[in-house]
Amino acid sequence: MRHTVYICLAGMLALSACGARNGDAEVQRAMQDLDIVDETNLNDVMMTVGDPEESVKYFSGAVATEPDRIDLQRGLAASLIRAGRAAEAVTAWQAVVGNPQSNLDDRVDLADAQIRSNQWDAAAATLNAIPPTHETFDRYKLEAMIADSKQQWDKADSFYQTAAGLTTTPANTINNWGYSKLTRGDHAGAERLFIDALRQDNSLFTAKNNLVLARGAQRKYDLPVVPMTQTERAQLLYTMALTAIKQNDVATGKGLLREAIDTHPQHFEEAARSLRALEEA
């Protein structure tokens, strides 16, 4: 009887020890999972909202420690773009593309970095190597920019139109398309596109300013009917004034400068200086 009790006690102790070991292993696995989640969250923060230079330092150190991890390589490349270090970002994205785990979006990001560092031919070659079935907003946006740089206007228009259709927020793309038309001298076409961009996002001041430039180039010296703050109105009048003066409509330009000065809620030094220069001349 005593022997049986000893066996039972030994068995219970063994089970307890086994359970403790299993529990420890589960705790360790859970902690590892938490570490991965925490690291992923930290990586996301560093790539998006952290100080760009701090992000570069963080990911540079991480890549040095784990050079084969593609998520860290991407983080470094993206951080270099955010920090305005495009030439270094090209090298970083090339490392990403060279990773066996890379995908076609990484090649698009490489082309983006190449354009930012003024490597237009290299960017075109990078995009040409991507299968045409890879149809994304970023890809077509870059294709449009390259076509613009080569003055291939029909291609540029096609790519801008496709890109705008592939995003739920097309205002910036349509604005860029309009600016392309503006540089070609198609002022009426540019005006229509800027109006469309503002229809998509009426807070986009760049499109408002570009719209004034397009109208001014056609000698339409009245402000368009779009939502604007008092400060924006003054700034747009100033843009209109400079456009008029550039076209030798000096009297109109002076009047617009005075209106801009009167409209601005604070002292509008740029407009005042321009007006003084005209009157002294």
UniProtKB/TrEMBL annotation:
Keywords, ordered alphabetically: Signal
InterPro entries the record matches: TPR-like_helical_dom_sf
Name the record gives this protein: Flp pilus assembly protein TadD, contains TPR repeats
A Pfam family the protein falls into: TPR_16
Organism the protein comes from: Loktanella fryxellensis
Signal peptide: 1-19
Coiled coil: none
UniProt entry tagged with the keyword Lipid biosynthesis: no
